[in-house]
Design a protein that fits this description.
CATH architecture of chain B: Orthogonal Bundle
Radius of gyration of chain B: 11 Å
Helix content of chain B: 55-70%
Largest interface: A-B, 11 and 11 residues
Number of domains of chain A: 2
Order of helices and strands of chain B: HHHH
Low-confidence stretches of chain A: none
CATH superfamily of the largest domain in chain A: Thiolase/Chalcone synthase
Number of strands of chain A: 14
Mean pLDDT of chain B: 94
Distance between the termini of chain B: 9 Å
CATH topology of the largest domain in chain A: Peroxisomal Thiolase, Chain A, domain 1
CATH superfamily of chain B: ACP-like
Shape of chain A: globular
Oligomer: heterodimer
Order of helices and strands of chain A: EHEHEHHEHHHEHEHEHEHEHEHHEEEE
Strand content of chain A: 15-25%
Number of helices of chain A: 14
Largest sheet of chain B: none
Distance between the termini of chain A: 12 Å
CATH class of the largest domain in chain A: Alpha Beta
CATH architecture of the largest domain in chain A: 3-Layer(aba) Sandwich
Number of helices of chain B: 4
Amino acid sequence: MTSDRTLRDVVVTGLGATTPLGGDVPSTWDAALAGQSGARTLENDWAERYEIPVSFAATIKVKPEEVLPRPEIKRMDPSTQYAIIAAREAWADAGSPEVDGDRLGAVVSSGIGGIWTTLDGWDTLRERGARRMLPMTVPMLMPNSPAAYVSLEFGARAGAHALVSACASGAEAIGYGVDMIRAGRADVVVCGGTEATIHPMPMAAFAASRTLSLRNDDPQAASRPYDVDRDGFVVGEGAGIVVLESAEHAAARGARVYAKIAGVGLSADAYHITSPDPEGRGQVAAMRRAVEEAGITGRDVVHVNAHATSTKVGDITETRSIRALLGDDADHVLLSATKSMTGHLLGGAGALETIFTVKAVSERLAPPTINVANPDPELQVPLVRDEPAKLPGGDIAAVNNSFGFGGHNVALVVTNA
Amino acid sequence: MANTEQEILEGLAEIVAEETGLPTDAVALEKSFTDDLDIDSLSMMTIVTHAEDKFGVRIPDEEVKNLATVGDAVSFIAKAQA
């Protein structure tokens, strides 16, 4: 796996997350390896009161109120709270690197932004008038708020960015972090994605688009990518953040390196606003670009963390795309669909799944896909079910796929350190 | 119903503590919002919004700049309630 590229190597030195499975990366990863589901029945009356056909979601396991001081809770939208919790963990996990702020970047995305703040503000205006609108409303609702707060937290002055591409946002943020380092604009970048949309309005809106699972009587079995009885995705929430560094910077300070982000592939379907191109051309192009940039071949790919949201059409289109790219090499790929456990973190998904992919490569262990009682006969790649599966030794590569409404495709290639 | 100045101070201290994370007993009459309590203009407006709500008064924007200390705010609210 060598190449004559002159691109700077980018490594992962810190991981942070708060998810439906746990309040940090170790607890989330352990729960994923154990095949636990983070989906649960909502403790509110939204379904009844608003006639929303879905009464469950993959809510965050550890509430921010248990972690953050009250003033931070008050001035940050939940999407920013999750990002800050994950970013602090990632930064500490990286050993709080000493870096000139002008060489430190922050890239944190959300698919939807501060929607709790937006809708609370609208409720306040209608019920109580403009005089009661809180002055912090705009900085709380703006979709760049998580990136801005992460930049403030660590003094990141090389740039603070918030790329938005729906459910591909978190992966695109990490891809942009890689690009910042490769372009020489930063040595260290704190990057990832976050989402906090378990509010009745977006729940009703997703339900209206007929993309959610309606398995109200058994939430933990609802997210079932590749199972013949899958009926839609489960809304999740949380954040995933990674610390990226140039390999030289990490080596100079003796940092522990989890893995490399060796390739970033981006494409757009330009086909339909919500449906993936059934030919998978955009998905294949993104994966091909990532593999080419990584300087590897299809044979090196041993694991794919699929986007696989548990929808009828999307899951199978993706496995066809993997098969189209890898051909016979797809026979030895171990495919994991971790949304079966976490639900769909939307703008946080691509970042959390990059963390899973990094952990899989560094620990040589592919996480399981739960709830696959009867695999879809059209599934074209070997699936890791129920129990984690060992990945081979030596030099290996894994791909994390993330696709978003709007036709956004992001593939990241992760290789061992 | 009008509050005593002590009640207003206590209520205001709760609002400031919630916004800044300072302990309520740090919010004393002689403290300056900007110099002692490190409250920026957005936080000040947030405190004003909550205080209006809590004490049932109107604190006009042009009045806020005259509220240099906690004592100024307590006096203003007491007068506005009277």
